[in-house]
Amino acid sequence: MDINMTEYSSFLRENRVKVNGYLNKVLWFFALTGPAIALGVYGGIFLDITYTTCICISVVMILMSMVHLVLYKKFPSKTFTCVFALTSLALLLAYMTYSHVSIYLTWFLVPLLSLLFCDKYLYYYAFALNFILMCAATWARAPYEAALRPEYESPIAYFADTISGFTIESAIMFSSGYIIGKLTLSYFKSLFDQHTQIIEQEKTMKEKMDILDSMAEIYDHVNLIDFVNNTETSLRDPEQKKHGIDLSAQTHTLMYQTIKNQVMPDQTEAFTDFTNIKTVRSRLSQKKLISADFIDVVTGWFRAQYITVDQTLDGIPNVVIFTARNVDEEKRREEHLIRISMTDEMTRLFNRRCYDEDLKEFRKGDLAENFVLFSIDVNGLKKVNDTKGHAAGDELIKGAADCIALSVANKGKAYRTGGDEFMAIIHTDDPEALRETIKEKASGWRGMHTDEITMSIGYATAKKNPGASVDELEHAADADMYAEKEKYYKEHGIDRRRH
What we know:
Layout: H1 5-30, H2 33-42, H3 51-74, H4 79-98, H5 109-114, H6 120-148, H7 155-218, E1 221-226, E2 231-234, E3 242-244, H8 254-260, H9 268-274, H10 277-284, E4 289-296, E5 300-311, E6 317-326, H11 328-341, H12 352-363, E7 371-378, H13 381-388, H14 390-408, E8 412-416, E9 421-427, H15 431-443, E10 455-461, H16 470-491
Antiparallel strand pairs: 1-2, 1-6, 2-3, 4-5, 5-6, 7-9, 7-10, 8-9
């Protein structure tokens, strides 16, 4: 048994205090022994007892009760307080025996009471003192009894006969008391251990409920689902009323009925599958939580979660929490970060990373017949940088990006993949018209540092290259662009090698 010994010792001290309190009442009660015996003397029942004996019994017991009361008030759990009470009772019995009051089973009262302290050493003391006083009282009374009873030749014969019976009874009573004490102590330890476990469980449960209450404040919907008792409880409901769940016929909770009408129509089926309570336990097995994001037609994105609260040793959830929380702002931030990570800072076109990610998607399937890949390069950027500075070069790159973006518009996506290099993925049946549009936009462009911008533009279509992969189209578009650039160099009399 897992027992906190410090707390258990405290429990035993408290028990001593209580038992000492009860024993003090017993001592005061025994002060009435004198008057009770006096009534017997008056009625002729006790012929060999004097009124003086009755008075002595009451006076002594009153004094002992007062002393024990003082000890109890100042030292309620001390060993000597316990010993004084047991000794007082044992002395009372010895004096009553010596005064010719017949005592038999009453001799074993003191060891029996000592068991209440749950202390084996106090039991040993009470039993030893009891046996010693029993022998002493019997020895002192032997001459009187031997004189009255002719079957005994001498006081020693009476003492030997009487004390042998007491010894056998004492041995039986000692063994019985020892077993009772041991069983009682074991029982108390078991109860204390159970009490400790219950307190720990209550503490744990309170902590869990505090967490659940906190969750109820954070989430828009919080539903406690107990698969042991087959109940569901809305923690946002002030009454927290429990509703039964029939897993043989029921597939969804009441909360599902509340939320499903707000889910976007194209996501209803996915939301229904996620919230199926018949499969929740298997999906949550060995997991802390499962979650999925859906769109509310009114408030935007929300996140639904099943969180394990309690589970079996095999990791199967017994109690889970279903929550729904608006994450629309979070989604917007995510989209913004994704957009930033996929966008070229200077030109606001999509960047190389986005281009590579999009190519991965196109590699997965067949290309549409109107799929076109453009490769675009700015002419004369190095000359502008060398003669007019990098500010002019940056202006040229931004101007080229604007011309490409305006021309592509909603026909596809444009990317800046290098310094003065651009790519575009378009779906069009007339790529040549788009090339001319870009050139027209470029011819009308004017900057603060330079007056003109020209671009070499190449493209490759899936229609003219049947069966070609997207990577092969990319190489074909680059080849077409370099052919355009070569043509530009010749038209402008530029020696490409010297340049």
